Amino acid sequence: MFTLKQIRAFQAVARHGGVAQAARVLNASAAAVAANIDNLEAVTGLRLFDRKPARGMALSSEGRQFELGAQRLAAAADDVATLASSLRLGEQFEIRFGCYHTFAPIFAPALLSTVKSMAEGARFTLTEAPRSALLRALDEGEIDVALMYDLHVDRAQYVADRVVGAQPRAILAKSHPLAQHVSLNPLDLAPYPFVEFREEEDDSGFSEFLTAANVAPKVALSSRSYEVVRSVVGAGDGYAILAFQPKLMTSYQGDDLVAVPFNGEVRT
User: Fold this and answer.
1) Distance (Å, rounded) from C-alpha 95 to C-alpha 6?
2) Which of 143, 184, 238, 258 could cross-link with 98 by S-S, CB 3.0 to 4.6 Å?
3) Residue 19 and residue 51: Cα distance in Å, rounded?
4) What is the pTM of this model?
5) pLDDT single digits (tens) 168-188
């Protein structure tokens, strides 16, 4: 197993182009830096650098790929060191959480309670944002973890665990002809206008689901606002498909809504 010291040596040589230069930055001997690099290559089985006499060292193709993981590991180590220092000094530490904006009101209270019970004295901050903004915040180190749909998430770049499964439902006004059905086939919705929740340009919403079920959605309105969609549906102007529903099934206008499940499992 490689060590954090070897990772630091690898990063310094990659950044400065040679062992001697890296040694000066790390305040270590050139022999110690060279040994760390040799040991790291031996442990990983990778040739991380191309050695060029009189021209220093440059990352190999394997080294460039390894560098991405090394950066994440070093950043995580820095975070742990900062946390340890804060705990040692009795300082308050911060847990920076990101949550997909439409279901933040559903999950944020439970998250806050969990943090309080597990880490007394921790300060909890919440960023509510669309998917692309949450991924950007993770990349830039503005949040530590995000709760969001796992669609369009690169598993090679992010560590992701499934927390809860979401089963989309058809959202209808209580007065809609289909509102009393126990469950629906997507084809049942074909004659009616579709009120689409679509937060980003590259987001297909649930149009792909409808198309796969041989339904050509008649999009009456496309909105980035969860509550606008619910309000339009409540006014009787179509149906929507949403994955999470609040317990209070009324729109901002006070119209009653119902959420009807689909036959079978719907993947999200």
Assistant:
1) 29
2) 143
3) 11
4) 0.55
5) 889 999 999 999 999 999 899
**CA 118 from centre of chain:** 22
Residue 108 token pair: 């944020």
Q: How far apart are CA 156 and CA 188, in angstroms?
A: 39
Instruction: Provide the domain count of the chain.
Output: 3
Determine phi and psi for 43, rounding to 5 degrees: -70, -40
Give me 85's structure tokens: 């220092």
Whether residues 67 and 98 fall in one domain: no
pLDDT digits (tens, 9 = 90+) for 120-166: 666 778 888 888 888 888 888 888 888 877 766 776 777 777 766 66
Number of other residues whose CB lies within 10 A of the CB of residue 115:
15
Please tell me whether residues 73 and 114 are part of one structural domain: no
Residues 173, 256 within the same domain: yes
Q: Which residues lie closer than 8 Å to 69 by C-beta, 6 or more apart?
A: none
Q: Is residue 156 part of a domain?
A: no
| Residue 17 DSSP code | S
Residue by residue, DSSP assigns 170-206 as EEEETTSTTTT-SSB-GGGGTTSEEEEE--STT--TT
With contact defined as beta carbons under 8 Å apart, do 251 and 227 qualify?
yes
Q: Which domain holds residue 202?
A: 169-261
User: What count of residues does the chain have?
Assistant: 268
> Is 196 in contact with 135 (CB distance < 8 Å)?
no
Which whole-number Å values give the CA distances from 166 to 81, 123, 159, 217, in the listed order?
36, 29, 20, 22
